[in-house]
């Protein structure tokens, strides 16, 4: 081990021992639980993940219980975390692990990479954190720390990862990789933050190139996220205490989830006009007693969506292209929904 790597790892580990957050998945070395936490943490903040992780582990204490569950229950448990493909892959992978690896995550990169959802990051995270193997892992936090430490300018994309991997292999210790990799991610989350990094508290500041040249605020180059604004009209149609929901197609965005009918406003349409048109086009049905119910804002991927929600009654029987249900209030808990529809359900349930 080079003097540089010893020094880097020592400084980092010593900082981590004093400052690491006490997170539920850090109290275990169970590969299954580490895998679940790593998948949930992709694209999602730690504070949002904690309740989902705890609920998931209570319901699915091991891989066999995930494999035995139905698709709809898996999606329901994931409801609100977004990026539902993660849940579908996890479910498929659990079934393969039960079928081919006796219900245990295999500790080899080649085996893991065959499983759905195991890209370079998840494979490296499971191998290093669960099995303490020497694999570099690069998430957004690690990428930012290394771009700054190395003084690499440019946007924080995977184009940077080749150079970062080389540098990581130089400074990685031979043992205790689980601590090293988690410490790097934690440093990015708590100290080498996206905005206003706390360089004076950083164990790497003695040899950080961005800090030495005063460039820590401009590395990496920040991309301003451009949102597309959308207005959507939604119908909460009820009949004898039951509510109409329909299932999205099995392909594409939010595939297989359940939602209230409706659609985007077009041209100069008012929300009510859009609602009437959408119900005719989607369900071949007319709507009566259309009354504003709620308005709510909702973000997903690159869209900023204003939902205009109305209660109404259908005249005639709706004829959607896919599956549909009329469900009671107590039935909502069995149907996984995207977070926009879930917000509407919250309001319906509060109006008991
Ligand atoms: S010194 Fe500052 S910029 Fe450099 S790694 Fe530490 S927090 Fe990041």
Structure in words:
With 352 residues, this protein is of the alpha+beta class. It folds into 2 domains: 3-212, Hypothetical protein, domain 2 (Endonuclease III, domain 1); 228-350, Nucleoside Triphosphate Pyrophosphohydrolase, CATH 3.90.79.10. 44% of the residues lie in helices and 16% in strands. The chain has helices spanning 3-19, 31-41, 46-59, 63-68, 71-78, 85-101, 109-113, 120-130, 140-150, 161-171, 177-190, 209-212, 271-283, 339-350; strands at 228-239, 242-247, 258-259, 262-264, 286-300, 303-315, 324-327. A hairpin with a 2-residue loop joins strand 5 (286-300) and strand 6 (303-315). Helix 2 (31-41) runs antiparallel to helix 8 (120-130). The longest helix has 17 residues, at 3-19. It binds iron/sulfur cluster. Residues 145, 148-149, 191-192, 197, 199, 202, 204-205, 208, 210-211, 216 line the site of iron/sulfur cluster. The site of iron/sulfur cluster has 14 residues, from helix 9 and helix 12.
